[in-house]
Amino acid sequence: MKILMVCLGNICRSPMAEGIMQAKIEKYKLDVEVDSAGFEAFHTGDAPDFRAVRVMKQHGIDISGQRSRLFRISDFDVFDRIYVMDSGNFSDVKSMAKDVNHMQKVDYILNISHQGSNKPVPDPYYGGEQGFEKTYQLLDSATELIAIEIKNGGK
Ligand code: 4NP
Q: How far apart are CA 57 and CA 94, in angstroms?
């Protein structure tokens, strides 16, 4: 299975989601690959935001080697699941989808714990470091549930 995490800049939320999911893949020995992408080209090629790197390091996960990239239409074919962080990301992905099969792969990441709520993972970019810790906590809970679901045979 291949999972793509999507946010706007691909320097805060989705790189954190990728890093935490990767840690769960190792913890639960899952046959899963994870990547992340964004829709804002401003940071393409950049490492994650230093605050994201720092908070992740505090939790024992190194995401400093990741580089920001844009979402591309071929991602719909490569990935089995595409998790977005908020309604803006959802609209951005939807605008590139060719058919319902593409959109069936897409969901809000917090719908794993709050089914159908379409709750956002708030963007921590313009706030302080606590925002990044809150992002970590939200994504840690969500990816734990995703990992357990896959471990139990989720497709
Ligand atoms: P992210 O946060 O979507 O969680 O990576 C952002 C980072 C940078 C920008 C927007 C969102 N930006 O426009 O530069």
A: 33
